[in-house]
Structures are given as C-alpha cells and as structure tokens.
Amino acid sequence: xxxxxxxxxxxxxxxxxMDSPQAQQKFGTKAIKIMNVxxxxxxxxxxxxLRNALHPKIELIPGPGCPxxxxxxxxxxxxxxxxxxxxxIVVAFGDMLRVPVNVAKKSIRTLQQAKASGADIRxxxxxxxxxxxxxxxKDKYVIFFAAGFETTTAPIAGLIAxxxxxxxxxxxSARLTWPAVAMLLESCNINHDKPGFDALVAPGHxxxxxGANEWQFVVDKHHLPAAVAGFNTESLLAAFYSxxxxxxxxxxxxxxxxxxxxxxxxNLSAHTQLENTMDVVDANWRGIGxxxxxxxxxxxxxxxxxxxxxxxxxxxxxxxxxxxxxPGCDCANVVLGKHYPDxxxxxxxxxxxxxxxxxxxxxxxxxxxxxxxxxxRV
Length: 378
Known about the structure:
By secondary structure, the chain is of the alpha/beta class. 39% of the residues lie in helices and 17% in strands. The chain contains 17 helices and 11 strands. The chain has helices spanning 7-18, 21-27, 39-48, 50-53, 67-70, 73-85, 111-116, 127-136, 150-161, 178-191, 204-210, 216-220, 233-249, 268-277, 307-310, 331-335, 367-373, and strands at residues 32-36, 58-62, 88-93, 121-124, 141-148, 168-174, 199-203, 226-229, 254-256, 278-285, 289-298. The N and C termini lie far apart (48 Å).
C-alpha cells in the first residue's frame, strides 16, 4: 500500500520544485503569488508557520474569506438598534458581537456594548440554538442576525426549510464566496491589469457545500492555476505544489486536493435547501461595495420571517453612505489581498484584538487577527 506524503514530505516537494531549473527559468527573481481565499486557510498557514518554512519565492496572499469582515456596517447598526429599542432577543454568531460600527466613540458601537447596556443579545454557535431560543421565548420576537458564507448559510437554509416558530425572524447578511474573487479578476480585465496573484487556492469547506466546479471559472476564464484545499497542512501544501506545477508546465486545471469531502457538484441536498429558501441577489460588502449576485435574501414565501420587513423603520438608507470601514482602517484592501495586515497604519497601534478598530482584527477568520495572534508585530 502506497503511503501518502506527510506535511514534511509535501514541504520538501514544494521547495524542491521551486529550486528546479524549470522554476528558476520561469520565475527568475520574481515570487509566485498564491491567494488563499479562506480565513481558515490563513489560520492554518499561520499556525503551521508555513510562510517561514516555504521557499522565499512563494508569496501567500490572504484573500476575501472572512464573512465578519465584509458584513455591511449598516446591517450591524440595524441589529444594534433593534436590540436597544425593541422588546426582542437578538442572537448572532459570536464574532459579530465585537464588530464596531461608525458612530461616535461615546455611543454604543457594538452588539457587545448594547448587551452590556441591557439589550437581550445572545451569542450562538449553531442555527439550532436560534430555534430553541425562539421556542423558549414565544412572547417576543427572536431575531437571528445571520452573517456568513455558504458553509453557515446552508444550515440556516435547512433550518428555514423546517417548520419555523412564528416568532423567529432573520436579519440575513449572508454572502457567496466566489463572486468576490470573480470581481477581483474581472476588474483586472477591465483595467487591463495583471491580477495581484498568480494562482488560487479555494476553500474546501465552501467547496464541500457548493462543489469544486464552482471555481472552474478561475481556470477557464482567467487562465490561472487553481486548487481546492482542506485545512490540514498536507492538503494545503499539496494545493501549493499543484498550482506551482501547473504554472511551470503551463497545464492549467482545477485540482481537488480535498477529495475526502469535496465532490465536483458539492452537496446537492444543501443546494436544494438554499434554492428553496433564498434568492441570490446583488449585495454590499463592507468597504468594497456592491458585488453582483453575491448575497442571499429570503424568498417571498418567508417574508413573515424577514426582520427587515417586520421592522421597516430600521432600514436606514441614509446610513449607507457611512457604511465603509472606519477612518484609517485598511481592512478592505486586506480582504481584497491588495495589502498585508501589517501594512495598515493602525495595525498593532490603534487597532489590536483587545481594542479593534476594523473587523479584520475582530474575527478569528480575519487576517489581521490571525497575524497578530501568531506573533506578527510592527
């Protein structure tokens, strides 16, 4: 029985490939830039110390894989105001409670501060907790402020497809992952620029739900090598090896380096749940703007569970002009892979995990938080 390469063996294979005469001729003094889309990938890379272990001509770029980071500021503000001014219970995934909005420092700036002021706000780890809280509090609305990518949105769709308590509402701020990468590549085409990366490593958990084929456009339309990776070091290094080899051989394809869970078409049951409960719509990404067909919205059939329709007075369109990142915060460029976290002038000075200014320093999937946690200092 053939033994699969372990992390040490994969690391050796990658570095030997970069030292080959073919790589020397292909890349010269330039680095090959590989974007990893997922915050989970970035965390695994940093925990394993891969940037220091990999060949110096391999540059790993964090990409738009943090749903907390791109959640519109006005959505967070709306959740705060509902919790403060209505007799409701607001539930949200834990990271969302600490993301600040753009108001005066003496004002309530986070869901956590609103909770400390007496609002009934509860962190949850699973959509099923929202349902249970609603069943236990039938005398008031429970509003599930649901931000996330496909991996958290699919279970939410499953919850919605079941028999929902009448008092469970959704303030949905869910996003699709691939349109952000497509937007980056399309903007390069329009401006006749080269992409800011030479290869792409796509997120295994998203591909488990949506299918590896969702990333085929990177190869077919933009002629870049691509691979889907899981979250252990072996899978990531296998993906790096694949895209580098594709580049060297000029033989581009989408490589599935996480076949244990990822299939070409993904989880068809999850697809059905998403299609039956939600529509795909144009959506705002904080600091980035509107990305076409990149968000989810409840279908008409579920309008009685849509918090925006039940409480329309909190849909403050006037706030949309201040829905950017805070002044001086470079999170948007970090999310887009244009800047590294430590290139932001606030990183580690005004902005730390204890006192975050921007959302990238809040979330465990934010590149700034990950870099700081693993010792990158200014």
